[in-house]
Amino acid sequence: MNALDIFAGPSGPVSLEQAALSLLLAFGLSQAVAAVYIWTFRGMSYSRSFVQAVALGSIVAAMLMLAINNNIAAGLGIAGSLAIIRFRTAMRDPRDMVFVFASLGVGIAAGLRSHGAAVLGTIVFILAAVMLAGTEFGGQRHFDGLLRFTAPSDADDGDFAQALKTHTRRFTLVTLRDVAQGTAVEHAYHVRFADDEGQTRLVAALQKLGGVSDVSLFLEEPTVEV
User: Fold this and answer.
1) How far is CA 222 from the centre of its chain?
2) 198: exposed, middle or buried (C-beta count within 10 Å: 0-12, 13-18, 19+)?
3) Which of 172, 142, 179, 164 is nearest to 209 (CA)?
4) Is the model's pLDDT at 22 over the cut of 50?
5) Minimal CA–CA distance to 144: which of 163, 169, 108?
6) Span 119-144, mean pLDDT?
7) φ, ψ for residue 224 (rounded to 5)?
8) What is the tally of structural domains in the chain?
9) Domain CATH number, residue 213
């Protein structure tokens, strides 16, 4: 048996067991794709309904492929029916569109009973998505946010630098501005953290320093569910 035969789907009538296997496999694999989307999401417009759509889209695609089952007339009829439907949901992030296509691709492969291609394709897609997210491939953001605080003009800058070195991976001074008629100085730093806990630790450490007030940390990429 040729190793490539695992990617070819069988022809002929579809039994109830084969249809159930294809639909369940499509749903299971698309759930894995949706889970990876959740784990690797970065942005400001997270949508739970979109994640559920990714998980469910493969079932629809698999159902259509099972219904066509190498029947050209059925395929043309379904294609014509789908052409009438207009989907007006706009995707602002091209990455979201790729995950939708991945879910549909899983469903199509499972519906054609090419289960080997469906499983292997899902594994490769997940590994690629996790690798790109973990390595921040394509990113140009060098800092996580902007830190601002006010300190007396005669305060020791070494204390601030020590707190920043301890709780950040990297930082750079942006501005120093006199406030309160020269009796205080407003500091602004770009900061990058090693982990999320470093954010709260840094703010707490600065608030413990004498005379420091108005500590604010503005993050560049907050995640908000809408």
Assistant:
1) 13
2) middle
3) 164
4) yes
5) 169
6) 85
7) -125, 130
8) 2
9) 3.30.70.2690
Q: Greater confidence, 104 or 75?
A: 104
Helices (H), the chain: 16-40, 48-68, 72-84, 94-111, 115-134, 157-167, 197-208
Yes or no: say if 80 and 126 are a contact pair by the CB < 8 Å rule: no
Among candidate residues 6, 115, 12, the one with its CA nearest the CA of residue 69: 12
**Residue 193 near residue 167 (C-beta atoms within 8 A):** yes
66 with 111: CB under 8 angstroms?
yes
pLDDT at 223: 44
Q: Do 160 and 116 share a structural domain?
A: no
Tokens found for residue 147: 């830190």
**Residue 3 falls within a domain, yes or no?**
no
Q: Report yes or no: 37 and 47 within 8 Å, Cβ to Cβ.
A: no
Range of the domain at 214: 145-219
Residue 193 one-letter amino acid: F
Indicate whether 23 and 130 sit together in one domain. Answer: yes
CA dist 126 and 132 (Å) reads 10
User: Looking at residue 210, what DSSP letter applies?
Assistant: T
- Tokens 């050209």 appear where? 72
Phi, psi of 128 (to 5 degrees): -65, -45
Give the end of a domain, one of 113, 134, 155.
Answer: 134
CA distances from 90 to 52, 55, 67, 81 (A): 16, 18, 28, 21
Query: In terms of pLDDT, which residue wins out, 44 or 135?
Result: 135
Residue 32 or residue 138, greater confidence: 32
Q: Are residues 22 and 125 in the same domain?
A: yes
Tokens of 75: 């395929």
